[in-house]
Design a protein that fits this description.
Blueprint (H helix, E strand, L loop, with lengths): L2 E6 L5 H14 L4 E5 L7 H4 L5 H10 L1 E4 L13 H8 L4 E7 L12 E7 L9 E4 L3 E4 L5 H17 L4 E6 L7 H13 L6 E6 H10 L6 E4 L1 H15 L8 E3 L4 E3 L18 H13 L3 H17 L13 H12 L1
Parallel strand pairs: 1-2, 1-3, 3-12, 5-10, 8-9, 8-10
Antiparallel strand pairs: 4-5, 4-11, 6-7, 11-12
The structure holds nicotinamide-adenine-dinucleotide.
The site of nicotinamide-adenine-dinucleotide has 17 residues, from loops.
Organism: Desulfofundulus australicus DSM 11792
Pfam family, one: Iso_dh
GO molecular function: isocitrate dehydrogenase (NAD+) activity; magnesium ion binding; NAD binding
Amino acid sequence: MAHKVTLIPGDGVGPEIARAARRVIDASGVNIEWEVVETGEALIPRYGTPLPEYVLESIRRNRVALKGPITTPVGGGFRSVNVTLRQELNLYANVRPARTMPGINTRYQNVDLVVVRENTEDLYAGIEHRVGDDAAESIKIITRRASERIVRFAFDLARKQGRKKVTAVHKANIMKLTDGLFLECARKVAGEYPDIVFEDMIVDAMCMKLVQSPENYDVLVLPNLYGDIVSDLCAGLVGGLGIAPGANIGRDVAVFEPVHGSAPKHAGKNRINPLAMILSGVMMLQHLGENEPAERIYSAVLAVLREGKTLTYDLGGSASTSEMADAIISKMQ
Ligand code: NAD
């Protein structure tokens, strides 16, 4: 039976990486019926919003979506479609694995960690206002419910993936009430998982330790903003945004998307790395229980990287987006 999946190409480089990922996934043998829905700024004249209701309806109906990046105006304009989607669909857990891959030239070996980022609150609640002309205020929301839920998610993921340690990352020395509550919840939930080592770390120290010895970390769990920043750092440890996949998981639905954004300066040039999107597709197939096609794609990606002949510019090669997808498809045949 076919899986119905919502495909959101997004904008900027989104459509080209979505096309590449769709071709690779279809070639893996899995039976997927794609429902393609458009989003973004271009829709505003027609629908009055960059996120028309039909997008949310499609995801709610199909329960699974593969999504390309969507541009957010800086400093003004409409609210981030990405943040709105996560909040509207209650996609409370953002999962971003960072793993050393063969053939990718990086400073580190043996990195294999997962960043679990709380996705619905913190400074991303979007509650900010100007105080007169010369000041502005943003409100940081941390709740017991969301904190316990995300830490439990991180421990469950650790158990499921056979991982040994969860590190809760915070700044509770300064934000004693907000991050203090997050840490209190993390310690409480950790008590329910005696089989998994728990530690906590202040976010600045965490960044230093990650660049010194990333192989010492396994699962990191963080409030929203630190999670956003630290997950890009972790992507940098293993080869950059071009290879960093992600998933937004809720109780009822899941949306899979690369960590990177719409990279507007590369849009339409067929040169961006499609791997982050393809590997997000692999995570999606695992979520759907399609482990064989997922493994087939992952092995083909590793084979292309090991061979080192068809790599995009960010990995030191000169292959195009579509050539890299072709190379992965040919390794599956
Ligand atoms: P970005 O991730 O789009 O790009 C930053 C740089 O990283 C690019 O210029 C490029 O050099 C490199 N890069 C990114 N993806 C790559 C890939 N697949 N292959 C090779 N190199 C790659 O970040 P930005 O420029 O800060 O953001 C652009 C827009 O994307 C903004 O509007 C931002 O709000 C949005 N954004 C969207 C999402 C999302 O949809 N989930 C996430 C992050 C940023």
